[in-house]
Amino acid sequence: NAGVMQNPRHLVRRRGQEARLRCSPMKGHSHVYWYRQLPEEGLKFMVYLQKENIIDESGMPKERFSAEFPKEGPSILRIQQVVRGDSAAYFCASSPGTGVYLRRRGYTFGSGTRLTVV
Amino acid sequence: GQNIDQPTEMTATEGAIVQINCTYQTSGFNGLFWYQQHAGEAPTFLSYNVLDGLEEKGRFSSFLSRSKGYSYLLLKELQMKDSASYLCAISGGSYIPTFGRGTSLIVHP
């Protein structure tokens, strides 16, 4: 059973370009969470999605950032017109919901995408 | 809102015991998580506490006091590979985990 798959692992973009980060949750998981991590800082929540629905996007910047989790395929975090301040590691986590699973295994994280804006 | 506080850095000796504290304020509570993160890698799940008391899992134990807004992670028989960042996270009313800044643990021989 593959874990949470994120790609690409590393992404370099020039200022003004678009960045697309993909996250395939674990099999059977329908809840996806995106986090951003800057060096020496904790994980900052961005957005929580379930299939075809954005549940909570309170951590997402209002401009340039969007996320989706279609019925088929991976969740996508899209950053338009990237700026140097967008350089960070972006992590995706998944879960099948709440309850017993979380008690035993928590949220499962992918290995992240390290975005560098030059 | 939520606020999580943990020490920035700790050092300990191989074979010793170390306790990493986490204090929090939250308006809703559905559990507290501890994660381990090695540099450049994904956070990995260590423990989940939702009731007061101690949960033991091998060399790692986690304690929770909801009335005090306090938790700790206890690592016994420290090994060099335990050098990592340890993240405390609160699952609030929305079940979205909020993470602290993490505690960087350095284990030396």
Describe the structure in brief.
The complex is a heterodimer of chains A (118) and B (109). By secondary structure, chain A is mainly beta.
Task: Characterise this structure.
The complex is a heterodimer of chains A (118) and B (109). Chain A has 118 residues and is mainly beta. In chain A, 5% of the residues lie in helices and 47% in strands. Chain A has one helix and eleven strands; from the N terminus they run βββββββββαββ. In chain A, a hairpin with a 6-residue loop joins strand 7 (65-68) and strand 8 (75-79). The longest helix of chain A is centred in the last third of the chain and has 6 residues, at 100-105. Chain A is globular, with a radius of gyration of 14 Å. Chain A starts with a strand and ends with a strand. The mean pLDDT of chain A is 92. Chain B has 109 residues and is an all-beta fold. Chain B has strands spanning 2-5, 9-13, 18-26, 32-37, 44-49, 53-57, 60-65, 70-75, 84-91, 97-99, 103-108. In chain B, the strands form two sheets. In chain B, strands 2, 4, 5, 9, 10 and 11 form a six-stranded mixed β-sheet that branches. In chain B, strands 1-3-8-7-6 form a five-stranded antiparallel β-sheet, with no helix packed on it. Chain B starts with a strand and ends with a strand. In chain B, 37% of the residues are buried. The mean pLDDT of chain B is 94. The A-B interface holds A 4, 33, 35, 41-45, 48, 56, 91, 93, 98, 102-112 and B 30-31, 33, 35, 41-45, 48, 50, 87, 89, 91, 94-102.
